[in-house]
Amino acid sequence: MFDDESCRPPYQQFKQSLEQYSGKKLLQLQDSSDKAQMSMGMTFNVYHDNQGVEKILHLDLIPRIISAEEWSIIEEGLKQRISAINLFINDIYHEQKILKDGIVPKELVLSSRDYLKPCIGLNPPKGIWCHITGSDIVRDKSGKFYVLEDNLRCPSGVSYLLENREIIKQAFPGLFAGLGVRPVSDYSNMLLNMLQHLSDKPNPTLAVLTPGIYNSAYFEHSYLAQQMGVQLVTGQDLIVKNKNVYMQTTKGLQQVDVIYRRIDDTFLDPLTFNPDSMLGIPGIFEAYMAGNVALANAPGTGVADDKAVYAYVPRIIKYYLDQDPIIENVPTYLCSEKDDLNYVLENIEDLVVKETNAAGGYGMLIGPKADPSEHTKFRKLVKDNPRNYIAQPTLSLSTVPTITPKGIAPRHVDLRPYVLYGDSIKVLPGALTRVALVEGSLVVNSSQGGGSKDTWVLFD
Questions:
Q1: Where are the alpha helices (DSSP H) in 124-265?
Q2: Taking the complete model, does pTM exceed 0.85, yes or no?
Q3: pLDDT digits 0-9 by tens, 332-356
Q4: What gap in Å lies between CA 415 and CA 433, rounded to an integer?
Q5: CA–CA separation, 365 vs 340, rounded Å?
Q6: What CATH number corresponds to the domain at position 265?
Q7: Alpha helices in 40-131 (DSSP H)
């Protein structure tokens, strides 16, 4: 919010408004916000929490505000990135030119847990693999943006973004019009249009496929289905006949043309992937390969979520688009490479070490915050399985003022914009800002106790 001692221009009007509230009034508003989230069902489960209690994704009332100029960099950078990643995924499941040309190591891709052999030769509808992406972006103290990771399998969080906006509008009525904040309410229509684009039928039947009520993001699954006016289904609601997918309804079977699936690739079809899956639909992959149903995202996209593959995205952009990346990666050390491995082992106290296929803040070491026993533990883990780890320098993430019991204080944040790829690539003019609620913490994930903020993108 501040640059040295002066307030940054995007925040100036909001700062004047904020100063009209006493600390007591802000805490009262914050409490009302928490209660509103609970009453709306904006909750999630944390799998490792033995109490089994549903939690809210705590919404801090002070928004993150981004100028139109800054947003244009993010928007163009993400469009460039998703375009290149889509070409990369298509290539590695077909001719593998980028591997043959040595731009990305062949073994790195083929050894990825998310490189799915059944997808070799697959041609997804309209040639699009990554329909919905939630890339995580961070900003350092200098103000420069970096992409921290790409989430292409089943990125979550957009429902919280949309509901956060409604709650903040009630907390600060009148501010939006005066500041010129770009709306995000059209996301459900954007998502619906993108999914409809995947079918050649004039009025395709759509469904959102959920693992069920015990999934941590079930609120989002039901919310998006309701907002789009489509059915929310589980694997038990669907059946495959003659390579077509049908939904069981009270009026009989109804063919489904497009499925927005919130189930991981390997659980989609027990006949093709994990035979023990109780969540998927036997035969759905065969129906997909036959072109009788569209799936978003396409199976196989998870290979680009691999954090070791992430390290090569700048080269992927250069290879397919002949452009330099608009938003750079965070510098990354690949533990599968000897020199990088030695550097990581020698400097683990100063680095962030991550599992290449983990998510949600799990399987991670933040060197400067960890004790010597954790450093020793991770050195052994990395030595035993170098391919499974990357490391990055500890960035000094930017902070945004946050309401705490002791008053307003800075807390570290990241940014998750949402990108839809249909007839063109569109970036929602807003994002889920995730905030580390613990003082000094760099971990913003909801599963690790993080919260969220509304993100205001201003018009020009």
A1: 158-171, 175-179, 187-197, 218-228
A2: yes
A3: 999 999 999 999 999 999 999 999 8
A4: 5
A5: 17
A6: 3.40.50.11290
A7: 68-92, 97-100, 106-110
Is 315:334 a contact under the CB 8 Å cutoff? no
Q: Which one of 350, 375, 394 terminates a domain?
A: 394
For residue range 274-297, list pLDDT tens digits in order. Answer: 999 999 999 999 999 999 999 999
What are the distances in angstroms from CA 182 to CA 95, 171, 235, 421? 42, 17, 37, 20
**Is 421 strand, coil or helix?**
strand
Residue 43 above 70 pLDDT? no
- DSSP annotation of 378 reads H
In whole angstroms, give the CA distance from residue 411 to residue 402. 6
R_g of the chain, CA atoms, integer Å: 22
In this structure, are 209 and 234 located in the same domain? yes
AA letter at 188: S
**In terms of residue numbers, what domain contains 118?**
1-181+302-330+397-460
Cβ burial, residue 49 (10 Å; 0-12/13-18/19+): exposed
pLDDT in tens, 205-225: 999 999 999 888 899 999 999
